[in-house]
Amino acid sequence: MIGKFYGIGVGPGDPELITIKAVKVLEKIDIVICPKSKKESKSVALSIAEDYLNKKAEILKLEFPMTYDEEKLNVTWERNSKIILDLLEKGKNIAFLTIGDPMVYSTYMYLLPFLKKKDINIETIPGITSFCASANKVNIPLASQEETLSIIPLRKNISEFEKVVDDYDNLVVMKPSTEHKRLAEILESRNLEDKFVLVSKCGTNEENISYDIDDLKNKKVPYLSTLIIKKGGI
Length: 234
Known about the structure:
Layout (H helix, E strand, L loop, with lengths): L3 E6 L10 H7 L4 E6 L7 H6 L8 E6 L6 H20 L4 E5 L9 H9 L4 E5 L4 H8 L11 E5 L5 H6 L5 E5 L5 H10 L6 E5 L7 E3 L2 H6 L6 E6 L4
Parallel strand pairs: 1-4, 1-5, 2-3, 2-4, 6-7
Antiparallel strand pairs: 7-10, 8-9, 8-10
C-alpha cells in the first residue's frame, strides 16, 4: 500500500505553537523530511519539531538552493519529488516540515505541484505564520475594523514595497534583512519611524524585538525577521 504524504507547518519557532494535529502525525510518522540549504548545519524546522517526533522515524534532509531562479528550483524539487515518491511507493508515511504555514511563502510550495501530478494521498496541516506570531507577541493588531493590510516578501530589491507602502493602512514585510537600511530610509521619509516594530527569530531563544529606527538602519537584521508597520501608530 502506498504511503501518505503530509506537509506540516511547524510555526515560527516556539515548539509550543505547533498544532495538536501536527503533533499526532509526527508521533507516528515513518520519515521526516527537512528542507535545508547547503549553508545550514541544522534544519530550523526540525529543531522546532524534534521533541514530538516518533523516536524510530528516519530523518531525511533534502537540500534546496537559496535562489529565486525558477529553473534551478524546478530541477531541485523534481529530483526531490522522485525521492519522496519512491519512499511512498514502499509504503512509508512521510512528513515534510516547513517553518510557519505551508501555504505562505514556504519551501513546501515548490514541491507540492510535482507531487500533485501523481495519484498519492496528500494532507497539508496549517501552521502559525511568523507575522501572526509576531503581532501577538507585541500585542499589536495586524488589522482592525476597515483597515487594509499588505503582506510583502522582500527579495533582492525593494521596488514592490515602494509601490504599495502608501496604499495600505498596515504592512507586513517578511524577511526584510536584505534591504533593511533602505526600509529605514523609506519609513523616515514618510514620518513612520515610530510606527513599526521589528521582530526577529520570534519564539526562539534568540528572539529580539525592536521599535528603534537606528536598529533597523544600522544593525544586522536576521534572515528570520518580520517588520510590522502600522500607520495609525504602534
